[in-house]
Amino acid sequence: MCEAYFPVDSGLGLEENFLSLDDILMSQEKLPGRAESALPRLAFALGPAAGTGDSIPEGSKLEIPLWLAKGLHDSKRRIISVELPKIYKEAWRTVFSADASVVDLHKMGPYYYGFGSQLLNFDNPENPEIAQTILQTFISRFRGIMDSSQNAYNEDTSALVARLDELERALFRAGQKGLNDFQCWEKGQASQITVSSLVQNYGKRKFADMDG
């Protein structure tokens, strides 16, 4: 039976993959910001925080969805300015550099890595430090995540994944699947290995070329 939806991986780096449900959800995450000029007919997109009427006055403080902030951001024209969410500021970067494993990433933001990478689209002097912290956080937490996924067989893993962001949860699931597949193989329950259809088709084409 065909699946109704085939999962699509998230984009990497500065661009989202708009076929990915995770990226669609991530693009709805809010950024604190300020209207540097009047924004006509945009109040509907920002909800109650934009105040009354259909336009946003200059100087208004905003909570801007990432997708809209990227669309309005222009380094030449000061339309909006955005601020760093607190988890990417210097105080939290210090916490991550001390011991990233103790941080509940899901509570602080379920798309910590993806959302942080998107922040690099905005002109911010702290971008190099943000990028370095994101990378080092992933490196320092990766081994613990994979070790946990390999040591939890047929167990309730809800407590293990509760503190992980969505990327880390996907890695944990991949580790669990690899462990389960290996256990099935050891018990002789693995599916029979068959020749890939790509290999079969390649072989047929090769023989056809030789006959020609």
Automatic annotation (TrEMBL):
Q: What's this chain's function?
A: The GINS complex plays an essential role in the initiation of DNA replication. Required for correct functioning of the GINS complex, a complex that plays an essential role in the initiation of DNA replication, and progression of DNA replication forks. GINS complex is a core component of CDC45-MCM-GINS (CMG) helicase, the molecular machine that unwinds template DNA during replication, and around which the replisome is built.
Name by which UniProt lists this protein: DNA replication complex GINS protein PSF3
In this chain the DNA replication complex GINS protein PSF3 N-terminal domain maps to: 20-72
Its main localization is nucleus
| UniProt similarity note | Belongs to the GINS3/PSF3 family.
Superkingdom of this protein's organism? Eukaryota
Quote any Pfam family the record assigns. Answer: PSF3_N
Lineage per the UniProt record: Eukaryota, Metazoa, Chordata, Craniata, Vertebrata
What keywords does the record list, in alphabetical order?
Answer: Chromosome, DNA replication, Nucleus
